[in-house]
């Protein structure tokens, strides 16, 4: 197993190296003599498709960085996991490779466990709440720990995919309605425990297998954001989208701390500022399109369930905090947030 991982890591390094060489050759072939050539090239990987708003947001971030650094910093964005799987990419950037990755609190919590609270049930409810988290002392300590111990630089976590809801073939209005149902969710402990706390049996399954899984009744439903329903055509497999609003899905944009430190200080600041700006814009765009998607799904025959007992779900969600030992961490963050208001 160790030899396999080592081989995969070496292969990924070779791929990244070839991409960097290709970028340099392409630059020499296509850039005008008087145009600035990039001094710093960052390869940025994400698992979403090319049509997703996040991809367009990442391109906007890259363009703004290029403009503000007079072409000296170039971010090359790779969609659909073209550079590799998330976990492997993070391992490579930890070692100093000039790459970045879109990830979330669930995966980052593999390094700093308490960070998982950011993806816990009903932790925050608005994009504005997420933006304020960056200034909290505890969050800053976690970021420093990621940098010092693991070589992971957090550029931003202002990229919000939206509220996660429950998609099934029967309406879900209370935690009782989830009893006996197998609901697909990502495999990280915070996702699994959250679904279990809300009343269902969590099933770890790759997202690409959800459509056939619903068709074959291997699962009874899935928790996801609205964009996922239309993107994966899951309206063909389920009748109800129940708005449980159980998790506001926060994404992290991370890169190699070692490579980040090699950039001039002013470029470091630009990289962070524009990542935050593009993240907020993209998050608000996703939020604004929810009503349009509701209408689209209704026209395709789905029923949007909005009379959900959110108080009952909030109460049920507390169990996830208890099981994972996150109650004290959550309360501390709330206290810090209240002091800043």
From TrEMBL:
Keywords: Signal. Pfam families: DctP (PF03480). GO terms for cellular component: outer membrane-bounded periplasmic space. GO terms for biological process: transmembrane transport. Residues 1-23 form the signal peptide. Transmembrane segments: none annotated. The keyword Signal applies. InterPro entries: DctP_fam (IPR018389), TRAP_DctP (IPR004682), TRAP_DctP_sf (IPR038404). The keyword Signal applies. It comes from the Bacteria. PANTHER family: C4-DICARBOXYLATE-BINDING PROTEIN, PTHR33376. This is TRAP-type C4-dicarboxylate transport system, periplasmic component.
């Amino acid at each position: 197993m160790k030899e396999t991982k080592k081989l995969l890591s070496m292969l990924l390094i070779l791929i990244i190296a070839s991409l960097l060489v290709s970028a340099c050759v392409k630059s020499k072939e296509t850039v005008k003599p008087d145009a600035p050539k990039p001094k710093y090239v960052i390869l940025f990987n994400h698992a979403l498709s090319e049509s997703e708003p996040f991809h367009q947001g990442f391109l906007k971030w890259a363009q703004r960085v290029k403009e503000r650094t007079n072409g000296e910093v170039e971010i090359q964005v790779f969609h659909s996991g073209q550079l590799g799987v998330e976990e492997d990419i993070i391992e490579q950037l930890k070692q100093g490779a000039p790459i970045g990755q879109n990830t979330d609190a669930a995966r980052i919590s593999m390094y700093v466990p308490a960070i998982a609270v950011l993806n816990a049930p009903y932790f925050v409810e608005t994009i504005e709440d997420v933006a304020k988290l960056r200034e909290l002392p505890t969050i800053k300590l976690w970021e420093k720990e990621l940098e010092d111990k693991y070589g992971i630089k957090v550029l931003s976590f202002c990229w919000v995919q939206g509220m996660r809801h429950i998609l099934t073939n029967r309406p879900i209005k209370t935690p009782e309605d989830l009893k006996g149902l197998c609901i697909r969710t990502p495999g990280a402990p915070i996702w699994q425990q959250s679904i279990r706390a809300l009343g269902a049996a969590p099933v770890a399954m790759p997202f690409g297998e959800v459509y056939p899984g619903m068709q074959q009744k291997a699962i009874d439903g899935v928790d996801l954001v609205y964009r996922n329903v239309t993107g994966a055509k899951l309206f063909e497999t389920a009748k109800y989208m129940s708005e449980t609003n159980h998790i506001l899905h926060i994404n992290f944009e991370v890169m190699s701390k070692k490579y980040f430190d090699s950039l001039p200080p002013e470029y470091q600041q630009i990289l962070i500022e524009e990542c935050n700006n593009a993240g907020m814009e993209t998050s608000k765009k996703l939020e604004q399109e929810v009503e349009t998607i509701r209408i689209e799904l209704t026209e395709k025959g789905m029923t949007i369930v909005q009379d959900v007992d959110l108080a009952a779900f909030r109460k049920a969600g507390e169990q996830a905090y208890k099981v994972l030992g996150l109650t004290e961490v959550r309360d501390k963050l709330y206290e810090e947030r209240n002091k800043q208001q």
